[in-house]
Amino acid sequence: MGSADMLGLDHNNAHVDELGLYHYNGMPPALEKTSNGTLVSWAADGFEIHHVGMSAKSSWMLKTGIRQGV
Q1: How far is Cα 20 from Cα 24, in angstroms, rounded to an integer?
Q2: Total structural domains within the chain
Q3: Is residue 40 part of a domain?
Q4: Which domain holds residue 21?
Q5: Contact at 8 Å (CB) between 14 and 25?
Q6: φ, ψ for residue 7 (rounded to 5)?
Q7: Would 46 be classed as within a structural domain?
């Protein structure tokens, strides 16, 4: 995470930037220890923020059908 001391990171790997906004620069250690769920926080618009790490799986699928050649 670079120089944590220079950024002034707290125990949750976060800090306040020059605009006064609190934000994370890494996964909070307290959440890394939890074994249930993936919820990390909520965005300003109310949507949930999840961390799934390496277990992320794409939902992309190729649709069946006949396509014209290019």
Answers
A1: 13
A2: 1
A3: yes
A4: 4-54
A5: yes
A6: -80, -20
A7: yes
